[in-house]
């Protein structure tokens, strides 16, 4: 009996050990698959096409065991790394060509995720889901007519009565911001249906109220750059894209290399998707005004800055905003990621970064993050790119100062705080002589007032003599008074105070 019990216990131990080893091995494989999916598209000795082809083969071999895990990772990557949307769409397209059932399961999974994000008010993830669903049309995973039905449903939701305008605006913005990825495909296959969709959007935009627009402007004057409401600006960019036959230069399209494989795959159709109804507790993205500081005449010789109504400007700015959102808690990493922008050879990158950073800082009514966040990232950018970034930032400061008399008062205060903080990190060096003419203006004019408030902030970050020494004599009247301690018991009449007490 004892011998038998010992044998049974040993068998139980072996079974448990084998089970643990199997779980451990599965975990290792899952981690390896996740790492491969996350890293696809990064710099590699082999081409992106060969990496995608190899990864598709690896994933197909593991579908039977890790199907749910692969579905989840691919969807998470598409949402959290929207700049790699076309890479993951191509990967799904290759898997669909190899395994039609998996393609259908992925469509169901991404649609379920899209619905959940809409229901829970996760508006950016929902928009990236919609973009990814649209890009699946380019990879022959979804039928173009099926996508257009979904887009029409979303635009219909924008015409719903009795709901906040911010809700209706979001649905139109989500559809318009998707078209740069899939507009060409829809134009070639369903031109009349696409035209009808655009007409419906145009009618909505023409009827839409813009009472919020004046309150969100950084400047009260529209010269030299028109301050456009964000939906109006995107609509102008989409119209320009349409005139250019839906052709753009800043979206990588790796699926074109696999066209012969993907075009033979069977396509899926989307299930019926109805946006959830509005609830009183729902919070929607706020409207905004597009901040413009530079145009191509401000940039020296080199790559040309895309025009304000080119779709490339929208794509560049959205990508830079996404980088700031992802890395804003790590200023050094954020600066490094901004300077590693993938299309930096095609654009004046420093100008684009500075414009986007000030757009974030001057966002009304409040910036997305603490003001010091933007100041610290700009300092890191100057350290990482000392040959160009300080000059671009100085040029931006001059432009802001020249237009300061029409600047919104909240933005004026943020500009003061940022400039004083920035000076304190660069030994308070500035070409103050260029601003000497301000002393002749009324003391309450915004320009001398700006200098006076900046010097007041610098005094808090330094000491009076330092502030006095860094300013030319002509601007000395704007230097704040030297702070002196006040000891009330040594003042005239102090004896009477003592008697009373």
Automatic annotation (TrEMBL):
GO terms for cellular component: nuclear cap binding complex; nucleus. InterPro entries: ARM-type_fold, CBP80, MIF4G-like_typ-1, MIF4G-like_typ-3. One of its GO terms (biological process) is mRNA export from nucleus. The keyword Nucleus applies. Belongs to the NCBP1 family. Component of the nuclear cap-binding complex (CBC), a heterodimer composed of Cbp80 and Cbp20 that interacts with m7GpppG-capped RNA. This is Nuclear cap-binding protein subunit 1. The lineage of its organism: Eukaryota, Metazoa, Ecdysozoa, Arthropoda, Hexapoda.
């Amino acid at each position: 009996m004892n011998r038998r019990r010992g044998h049974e216990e040993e068998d139980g131990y072996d079974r448990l050990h084998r089970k643990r080893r199997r779980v451990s091995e599965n975990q290792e494989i899952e981690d390896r698959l996740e790492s491969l999916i996350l890293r696809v598209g990064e710099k590699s000795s082999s081409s992106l096409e060969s990496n995608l082809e190899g990864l598709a083969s690896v994933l197909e071999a593991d579908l039977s065991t890790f199907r749910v895990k692969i579905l989840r990772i691919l969807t998470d990557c598409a949402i959290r790394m929207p700049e790699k949307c076309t890479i993951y769409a191509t990967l799904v397209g290759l898997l669909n060509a190899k395994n039609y059932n998996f393609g259908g399961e992925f469509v169901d999974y991404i649609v379920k995720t899209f619905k959940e994000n809409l229901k829970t008010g996760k508006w950016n993830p929902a928009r990236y889901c919609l973009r990814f669903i649209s890009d699946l049309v380019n990879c022959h995973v979804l039928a173009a007519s099926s996508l257009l039905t979904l887009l029409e449903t979303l635009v219909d939701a924008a015409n719903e009565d009795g709901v906040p305008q911010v809700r209706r605006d979001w649905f139109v913005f989500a559809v318009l911001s998707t078209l740069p990825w899939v507009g060409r495909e829809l134009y070639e296959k369903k031109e009349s249906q696409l035209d009808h969709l655009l007409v419906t959007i145009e009618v909505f935009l023409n009827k839409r109220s813009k009472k919020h627009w004046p309150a969100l402007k950084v400047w009260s004057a529209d010269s030299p750059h028109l301050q456009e409401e964000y939906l109006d600006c995107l609509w102008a960019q989409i119209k320009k894209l349409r005139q250019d036959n839906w052709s753009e230069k800043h979206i990588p399209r790796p699926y074109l290399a696999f066209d012969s494989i993907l075009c033979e795959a069977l396509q899926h159709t989307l299930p019926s998707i109805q946006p959830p109804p509005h609830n009183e507790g729902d919070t929607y993205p706020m409207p905004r005004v597009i901040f413009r500081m530079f145009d191509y005449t401000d940039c020296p010789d080199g790559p040309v800055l895309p025009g304000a109504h080119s779709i490339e400007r929208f794509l560049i700015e959205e990508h830079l905003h996404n980088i700031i959102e992802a890395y804003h808690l790590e200023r050094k990493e954020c600066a490094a990621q901004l300077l590693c922008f993938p299309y930096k050879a095609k654009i004046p990158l420093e100008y684009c970064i500075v414009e986007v950073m000030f757009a974030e800082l001057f966002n009304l009514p409040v910036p997305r993050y603490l003001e010091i966040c933007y100041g610290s990232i700009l300092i890191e950018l100057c350290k990482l790119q000392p040959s160009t970034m300080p000059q671009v930032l100085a040029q931006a400061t001059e432009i802001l100062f020249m237009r300061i008399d029409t600047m919104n008062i909240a933005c004026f205060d943020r500009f003061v705080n940022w400039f004083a903080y920035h000076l304190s990190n660069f030994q308070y060096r500035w070409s103050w002589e260029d601003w000497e003419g301000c002393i002749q203006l009324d003391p309450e004019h915004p320009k001398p007032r700006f200098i006076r408030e900046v010097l007041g902030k610098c005094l808090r970050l330094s000491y009076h003599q330092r502030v006095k020494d860094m300013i030319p004599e002509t601007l000395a009247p704007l230097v704040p008074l030297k702070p002196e301690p006040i000891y009330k018991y040594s003042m005239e009449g102090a004896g009477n105070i003592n008697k009373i007490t």
